[in-house]
Design a protein that fits this description.
By secondary structure, this protein is an alpha/beta fold. It has two domains: 158 residues, 3-Layer(aba) Sandwich (Rossmann fold), CATH 3.40.50; 118 residues, N-(1-d-carboxylethyl)-l-norvaline Dehydrogenase, domain 2 (Orthogonal Bundle), CATH 1.10.1040. Helices cover 51% and strands 13% of the residues. α1 links the parallel β1 and β2. α8 packs across α9. The protein binds NADPH dihydro-nicotinamide-adenine-dinucleotide phosphate. NADPH dihydro-nicotinamide-adenine-dinucleotide phosphate binds next to α1 and α4. InterPro entries: 6PGD_dom2, 6PGDH_NADP-bd, HIBADH-related, HIBADH-related_NP60_sf, NAD(P)-bd_dom_sf, RedAm-like_C. It comes from Streptomyces cavernicola.
Length: 289
């Protein structure tokens, strides 16, 4: 069982990752660019070092939880030689291509590399909720999964290092559009005096119920036949009235206008009788109707 881990980056997320490892009795070495972050980790037995090199050489497994790809490059670039033969787990949020670039750099330097994408806020780490996706070295994942499971449910997405980040960003796309949809709806009803908490109390159960539709849409997409009976047609889904009502209330219709653009593009292409999920094909075609 792996007992020694080094954690680079003691921000909100890195400090909780380190703390969870300490809770499990692991020997943890930590480093942060700005000294003095997370003093409670030292009090709880973490070894705090003042150089990246000291952190990297302390453990066979190095977890990087920094701000972004460029901070990872700046931090790890000078210690590539010290990382050779060790396993690097980068859970910093990056784009798929940034993850692939790091994987390629790691391969060039004899470093076993895994990319991790965290689907959780710090409070969820170690609490039995949340997920972390991994991609890259399968051998490293198999070896480390028991350790990863201390943080959150772990899922391996394949040897292409960019895949975990891709799934992560795809999930966040849905989340941010849902939040923005809520902001837009709340702005619309604010015009008639409904408070945001009042609207949230109505919107949350409605959206929760609507998520049941995702599986049905997914089945249509998988079948690839948007004429299967029982689908809500694109004509029926025309949102012109929603865009108009938003504008009439003095509320920027931009979020829903973006959806309407996708729907009207399909209708204009003569597919109005097909199901709403046909929008998926338009997106996959890169915007070509
Ligand atoms: P914080 O802003 O709390 O911490 C950022 C960390 O990065 C700090 O340790 C900071 O060090 C370090 N850092 C920033 N720039 C550099 C640099 N150029 N060189 C070295 N170190 C640097 O962020 P989080 O801990 O919340 O997030 C860390 C990563 O985890 C991010 O990629 C984030 O997207 C991801 N993540 C976070 C989630 C969250 O809910 N917090 C959820 C999912 C993913 P210093 O103290 O010196 O500034």
């Amino acid at each position: 069982q792996l007992t020694e881990v080094s954690v680079l980056g003691l921000g909100a997320m890195g400090s909780v990752l380190a703390s969870t490892l300490l809770d499990a009795g692991r020997s943890v070495t930590v480093w942060n660019r700005t000294p003095g972050r997370a003093p409670e980790l030292a009090a709880r037995g973490a070894r705090v070092v003042d150089s990246v090199r000291a952190a990297v050489t302390a453990s066979p497994v190095v977890v990087a939880c920094l701000l972004d790809h460029s901070s990872v490059q700046a931090t790890l670039g000078p210690v590539a030689d010290a990382l050779r033969g060790r396993t690097l787990v980068n859970v910093t949020t990056t784009t798929p291509n940034e993850s692939r670039a790091l994987a390629s750099w790691a391969a060039d330097h004899g470093i076993d590399h895994l990319d991790g994408a965290i689907m959780a806020v710090p409070a969820m780490i170690g609490s039995g909720t949340g997920q972390i996706f991994y991609s890259g070295s399968r051998a490293a994942y198999d070896r480390l999964q028991p350790t990863f499971d201390l943080w959150a449910a772990s899922e391996f997405h394949g040897a292409d290092a960019g895949r975990a980040a891709l799934v992560d960003l795809a999930m966040l796309s849905g989340m941010y559009q849902m939040f923005t949809g809520f902001f837009h709806g709340a702005a619309m009803v604010a015009a008639m005096g409904m408070s945001a908490p009042e609207f949230a109390a109505r919107q949350a159960p409605f959206l929760a119920a609507m998520t049941q539709e995702l599986a049905a849409y997914a089945k249509v997409i998988e079948g690839g036949d948007y004429t299967v009976p029982g689908q809500q047609s694109l004509h029926f889904s025309d949102l012109s009235h929603l865009v108009q009502a938003s504008a009439e209330e003095g509320v920027d219709p931009a979020p829903i206008a973006a959806v309407q653009t996708l729907i009207s593009r399909e209708i204009a292409a003569g597919r109005g009788e097909e199901g709403l999920a046909r929008v998926y094909e338009g997106l996959r075609a890169g915007g070509a109707a």
